[in-house]
UniProtKB/TrEMBL annotation:
It comes from the Bacteria. Residues 42-192 form the NAD(P)-binding domain. This is NAD(P)H-binding protein. InterPro entries: NAD(P)-bd_dom, NAD(P)-bd_dom_sf, NmrA-type_oxidoreductase.
């Protein structure tokens, strides 16, 4: 039995859909911290195909043990809250997996987690989790995903459309941003045993591209004039403060347009600027048989989320 966590999320949902394509539903357990929020039609379809849907809250060890019961291989999606809260949630999930007899965990980590030191706050949690997983006695694989292309083409683009300024501290740095679809396919490959056990895989795109280039692509495709505003880290922090984005993951997100704290965003943008995200791996093609998707490949899909461009009135 395969256990897939976070099926209500963007990456977890893609992993669930891909697993349903290749594995009978009777061999699948899907979990979510809030199953009641999943659309009834989707739940009915899963049920008809034999999928079991269970509640699994990383902050509730009892729910994790109940959700993972009967599983052999677990897809463990990383939690959202950056910092010690997330580290403890990940320990809870690994402990629960071990307690109920899970044999193997496929965990979504981060590209820089394997580096001995990094200033990107997100890497700390993943490094700690990888070490805990490696010491758990379970078999494991980690996907060290780069930053998602969709974050830039959709989420950051949405903010830029508000006033025409794409604010970032990434400067002219480049990175091998990766598509979620590619990460999902790699996750499924590892979950179904196609990788080498007890191995971490860097999961990247196949091209180096700058945030400036992405901004220009979005502007050209949308017809909306966007200005690339290169800022210092301190200036970007101040702008996010004004926008209502908390600096810490434990802050108040009630006014935030993002689910991420600004420490996470700004340190990742700095990572792009400083070149820590420039690794290009062959993982996607080697494990899935497909070349990585590019920003250009995702542009049309991303455009469906953008506001229509204002047109000059007919004269």
């Amino acid at each position: 039995m395969y256990v897939i966590t976070g099926v209500d999320g963007k990456l977890g949902g893609k992993v669930a859909a891909e697993m349903l394509r290749i594995v009978p539903g009777s061999q699948l357990i899907f979990t979510s911290p809030c199953p009641e929020k999943i659309p009834a039609q989707e739940k009915d379809e899963w049920s008809q195909r034999g999928v079991q849907l269970r509640k699994a809250d990383y902050s509730d060890p009892h729910s994790l043990r109940a959700a993972f019961q009967g599983g052999q291989r677990l897809f463990m999606l990383s939690a959202m809250t950056v910092g010690e809260v997330r580290q403890q949630q990940h320990r809870n999930a690994i402990d629960a997996a071990r307690a109920v007899g899970i044999d193997h965990i496929t965990y979504t980590s981060f590209l820089c987690a394997g580096l001995p030191e990094t200033f990107q706050v997100v890497a700390v949690d993943h490094r700690v989790t990888e070490q805990y997983l490696q010491q758990s006695g379970l078999r494991w694989n980690t996907l060290r995903d780069n930053l998602y292309l969709e974050n830039y083409l959709v989420a950051f683009a949405a903010i830029a459309f508000q006033d025409g300024l794409w604010r970032t501290s990434a400067g002219e740095g480049t990175a091998s941003f990766v598509a979620r679809d590619d990460c999902a396919r790699v996750a499924v490959a590892l979950l179904t045993g196609k990788g080498e056990a007890d191995t971490g895989y860097d999961v990247t795109g196949g091209e180096l591209i700058s945030v400036h280039q992405i901004c220009d692509m979005v502007a050209a495709r949308s017809g909306v004039a966007l200005t690339y505003s290169s800022m210092s880290d301190e200036e970007l922090f101040a702008w996010y403060d004004a926008l209502g984005v908390p600096r810490k993951a434990t802050g108040d997100f009630s006014r935030s347009p993002y689910p991420w704290c600004s420490e996470d965003i700004v340190s990742n943008e700095a990572g792009v600027r400083e070149g820590t995200m420039r690794t290009i791996s062959d993982t996607v093609e080697r494990l899935t048989g497909r070349k990585p998707l590019t920003a250009q490949d995702l542009l049309e899909s991303a455009a469906t989320s953008w506001p229509p461009a204002e047109r000059e009135p007919d004269r």
